[in-house]
Write a structure and sequence with these properties.
- The structure holds two protein chains of two kinds.
- By secondary structure, chain A is mainly alpha-helical.
- Among the domains of chain A are: 55 residues, Electron transport complex subunit B, putative Fe-S cluster (3-methyladenine DNA Glycosylase II, Chain A, domain 3, Orthogonal Bundle), CATH 1.10.15.40; 59 residues, Alpha-Beta Plaits (2-Layer Sandwich), CATH 3.30.70.20.
- Helix content of chain A is 38%, strand content 7%.
- Chain A contains seven helices and four strands.
- In chain A, helix 3 packs across helix 4.
- Chain A is elongated, with a radius of gyration of 27 Å.
- The N and C termini of chain A lie far apart (78 Å).
- Chain B is an all-alpha fold.
- Chain B has one domain.
- Chain B contains nine helices and no strands.
- Chain B starts with a helix and ends in a 7-residue tail after the last helix.
- Classes of the chains: A mainly alpha, B mainly alpha.
- At the A-B interface, helix 1 and helix 2 of A face helix 3 and helix 4 of B.
Chain lengths: 196, 191
């Protein structure tokens, strides 16, 4: 066998490369089974619905941890202020549960946005680097300001500010974001027979 | 024993992969914006580089030399490095989820890090023994880590400095890197 391989360089090259590839393929295949990480697919699906701001307002260090808590520990699904009611509805639909209003906890005061008092800002760029959604513009030693349409109101920038010039204000109600609140009747569903 | 220590020192300082041989410049410029990510990348590279130099020695001396296939070493080494990196990723993911979250993004990047292929090829070209191959790989990785952490700390300071507009970003990074490289030339003749 060895003499045959030595006398045919092409054959030996093919056999050597092929067998090495087979060996590594076998090792990797074995490792894929042996070292498989059991990740819950539902956690990943919930995580995909979350806004990935990693702001921590839900009380968990990141969106993945909150998704894990929702799936494994029956955590409430309405603790995500940046996601708002649309995220709550999406998660509720995925998990097949009723969607609670998003302002029960966390956003008790309604939606807020950050505001920078520009007379005190001296341009340290700390808030700019903290903002998960890039809603703060500015540069070193230049005054910063908040793009109000991009701010999700997560409040992460407030603590980082060197001069305490950032504060959270409720979003003013204008004709563009005003929502006609529907009257709340106790609706009885015919099939399930329970109140919604 | 003395020659081994000299080899280690030579790999770390005199023949530094990044600054003297200009290998692995992609991660050097790419992941040196923050010290934390630089440390993660340095740790992952150290692990893979040491493992790859050991595996490279075995593949070369147990498979290629007996069959007279030395001319195919590059393609064999690339196959080996890709597999070793993938295996490392799987093992870390299973054994240490926290380390995996820190290193996770960088592990696949190491496959395309030319310093890994470089160290294996140098080991064969310099005809190192198994122990010398390990020392060369580990020393090179230490040198890479040292330079990466140094450079990322400097870039964090530069980010806050008043850099002329035309030099901002990667340009000032390149200028800084070449100055560090000049400084490392001072180690020539140390060993």
């Amino acid at each position: 066998m060895y003499a045959l391989l030595i006398s045919y360089p092409l054959l030996s090259a093919l056999v050597a490369l092929g067998s090495l590839a087979l060996l590594f393929g076998g090792v990797l295949g074995f490792a894929a089974v042996r070292f498989r990480v059991e990740s819950n697919p539902i956690v990943n699906q919930v995580d995909e619905l979350l806004p990935q701001s990693q702001c921590g307002q839900c009380g968990y260090p990141g969106c993945v941890n909150y998704a894990e808590a929702i799936v494994n520990n029956d955590e409430a699904i309405n603790k995500c202020p940046p996601g708002g009611q649309s995220t709550v509805n999406a998660i509720a639909e995925l998990l097949g549960v009723e969607a609670p209003a998003s302002d029960e906890e966390g956003t008790a005061s309604g939606p807020v946005i950050a505001y920078i008092d520009e007379t005190d800002c001296y341009g340290c760029t700390k808030c700019l680097r903290t903002c998960p959604v890039d809603a703060i513009i500015g540069a070193t030693k230049q005054m910063h300001t908040v793009i109000d349409t991009d701010c999700t109101g997560c409040g992460l920038c407030v603590d980082t500010c060197s001069t305490n010039c950032i504060s959270m204000y409720p979003v003013p109600v204008t004709t563009k974001n005003w929502v006609w609140e529907l009257p709340e009747y106790p609706v009885v569903m015919a099939r399930a027979g329970k109140k919604v | 024993m003395f020659s081994d220590a000299a080899l280690l020192l030579s790999a770390i300082l005199v023949n530094n992969f990044v600054l003297s041989q200009f290998l692995g410049l992609c991660p050097f410029m790419g992941v040196s914006n923050k010290v934390e990510t630089a440390i993660g990348m340095a740790a992952a590279t150290t692990f893979v580089l040491t493992l790859a130099s050991a595996c490279g020695y075995l593949v070369y001396h147990l498979l290629l030399v007996p069959l007279g296939l030395e001319y195919l070493k590059t393609i064999f080494f690339i196959l080996m490095i890709a597999s070793v990196v993938q295996l490392t990723k799987m093992i870390i993911e299973k054994t240490s989820p926290i380390l995996y979250r820190v290193l996770g993004v960088f592990l696949p990047l190491i496959t395309s890090n030319c310093a890994v292929l470089g160290v294996v090829l140098q080991n064969t070209a310099k005809e190192h023994t198994f122990l010398q191959s390990l020392i060369w790989g580990f020393g090179g990785a230490l040198g890479f880590s040292l330079v990466l952490v140094l450079f990322s700390s400097m870039r964090e300071r530069i980010a806050a400095a008043d850099v002329p507009v035309s030099l901002q970003g990667t340009a000032i990074g390149m200028v800084t890197a070449s100055l560090i490289s000049l400084a490392f030339m001072g180690f020539a003749g140390l060993v």
